[in-house]
């Protein structure tokens, strides 16, 4: 890490957000890209107030809407004030203001959030638009099911992505809004646009990201794609600039991901939330009729949400949170999503009372270092209990920082697969572990 350096220059900051509110830097264990902008507002690698990512989504949606309509949206300053605050009352007031400011665009768009990091960010953008539909891409492989979209995220640790939206969701002329946490080269965006255009051609795309680090050459590639495909691609970001990297990317596994101690005894609770959510017996038009049900829920957005679904998703998370309150055993609580499952646990966390923090596990291997100003102070790895062929990581767990954790899964998992995570939580002094499942068994 000491032989790496990233130089930054900011070129556009429309809301005058100090950059330290948006990200910190870390070294990535990836030969393709040696560094990572670790977001402080996504709820992925760094724990956050659960409303912060939703406010970030709102500000991004506002930037796009104002660009699209040419009209300023009221109360944006109040929302920004809450976004920049660390005071719970300010944050909550800003979110209430945001919820009252949903807008309708001239043409009903389809919002697509990128897995895994931007599934909640995209969902939050959809939340702000009265007439939008939503779906997120996924790395889930569903047997006997043909995805509607396939593309490659070239710089990622897991590159192949698909989208299982139904045919009618894409077979139209509606504008598509692609949402990601960061644009570095824009290649991933162009990859998905080309695939959509080859199957469901249309005229208008927009790309929304918290950070936009594209060079002039990368921006010219967008312009070339517009001319080649006969489309328009507009962009909006909270912060734009230029970056240059010096040094050699890390390629070796990092040694201190696993817990060193077993720790003390913990209490475990299993919480089944399947009664609050809508089971998905996923039978797409391209799948054989004999295909059975899949253990997913509709509210995640993996298979698509309509404008009419917005209220029901909110109510489901609200009711689930009310149920979870009965299981609370601590004064300081962590709600931990897993992989692509970000939005539903985040919304549940936002409805809980008291000191609640939210973050999610990830596939991304990042180098941890306990040094001031570095984004990833510690990290632990384990095999994903939902798919034990995939390694997951969790970062920035403070010693004795939480009394309890609510670990959220979409699908039911085995006790044996949970043991490595239990060992991590034990070492970190969490005395109560709640295993939360939002869908039933297949």
TrEMBL record:
<dbReference type="Pfam" id="PF12500">
    <property type="entry name" value="TRSP"/>
</dbReference>
<dbReference type="InterPro" id="IPR022537">
    <property type="entry name" value="TRSP_dom"/>
</dbReference>
<feature type="domain" description="TRSP">
    <location>
        <begin position="299"/>
        <end position="424"/>
    </location>
</feature>
<feature type="domain" description="Orotate phosphoribosyltransferase-like">
    <location>
        <begin position="22"/>
        <end position="241"/>
    </location>
</feature>
<dbReference type="InterPro" id="IPR041688">
    <property type="entry name" value="PRTase_2"/>
</dbReference>
<dbReference type="InterPro" id="IPR011214">
    <property type="entry name" value="UCP020967"/>
</dbReference>
<dbReference type="Pfam" id="PF15609">
    <property type="entry name" value="PRTase_2"/>
</dbReference>
<protein>
    <recommendedName>
        <fullName>Adenine/guanine phosphoribosyltransferase</fullName>
    </recommendedName>
</protein>
<dbReference type="InterPro" id="IPR029057">
    <property type="entry name" value="PRTase-like"/>
</dbReference>
<dbReference type="InterPro" id="IPR000836">
    <property type="entry name" value="PRTase_dom"/>
</dbReference>
């Amino acid at each position: 890490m000491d032989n790496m350096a990233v130089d930054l220059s900011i070129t556009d900051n429309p809301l005058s957000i100090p950059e330290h509110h948006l990200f910190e830097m870390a070294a990535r264990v990836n030969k393709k890209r040696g560094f990572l902008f670790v977001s402080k507002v996504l709820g992925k690698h760094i724990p956050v107030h659960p409303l912060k990512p939703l406010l970030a989504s709102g500000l991004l949606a506002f930037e796009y809407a104002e660009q699209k309509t040419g009209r300023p949206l009221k109360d944006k300053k109040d929302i920004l004030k809450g976004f920049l605050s660390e005071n719970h009352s300010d944050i909550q007031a800003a979110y209430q203001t945001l919820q009252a400011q949903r807008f309708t665009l001239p043409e009903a768009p389809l919002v697509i959030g990128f897995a895994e990091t931007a599934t909640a960010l995209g969902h939050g953008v959809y939340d702000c638009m009265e007439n939008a539909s939503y779906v997120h891409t996924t790395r889930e492989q569903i047997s006997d099911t043909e995805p509607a979209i396939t593309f490659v995220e070239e710089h990622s640790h897991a590159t192949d992505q698909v989208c299982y939206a139904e045919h009618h969701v894409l077979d139209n002329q509606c504008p598509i809004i692609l949402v990601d946490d960061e644009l570095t080269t824009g290649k991933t965006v162009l990859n998905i646009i080309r695939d959509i255009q080859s199957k469901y051609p249309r005229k208008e795309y927009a790309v929304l990201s918290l950070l936009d680090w594209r060079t002039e050459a990368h921006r010219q590639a967008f312009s070339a794609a517009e001319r080649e495909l006969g489309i328009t691609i507009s962009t909006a970001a909270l912060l734009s600039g230029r970056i240059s990297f010096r040094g050699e990317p890390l390629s070796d596994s990092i040694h201190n991901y696993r817990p060193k101690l077993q720790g003390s005894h913990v209490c475990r609770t299993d919480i089944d939330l399947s009664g609050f959510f809508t089971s998905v017996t996923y039978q797409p038009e391209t799948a054989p009729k004999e295909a059975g049900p899949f253990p997913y829920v509709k509210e995640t957005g993996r298979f698509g949400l309509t404008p009419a679904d917005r209220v029901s998703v909110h109510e489901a998370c609200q009711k689930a949170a009310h149920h979870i309150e009965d299981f609370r055993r601590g004064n300081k609580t962590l709600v931990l999503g897993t992989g692509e499952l970000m939005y539903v646990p985040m919304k549940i966390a936002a409805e809980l009372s008291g000191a609640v923090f939210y973050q999610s596990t990830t596939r991304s291997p990042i180098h941890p270092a306990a040094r001031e100003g570095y984004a990833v102070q510690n990290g632990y790895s384990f095999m994903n209990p939902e798919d034990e062929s995939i390694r997951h990581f969790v970062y920035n767990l403070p010693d004795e920082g939480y009394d309890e954790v609510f670990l959220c899964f979409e699908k039911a998992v085995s006790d044996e697969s949970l043991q490595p995570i239990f060992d991590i939580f034990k070492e970190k002094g969490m005395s109560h572990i709640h295993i939360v499942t939002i869908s039933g068994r297949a």
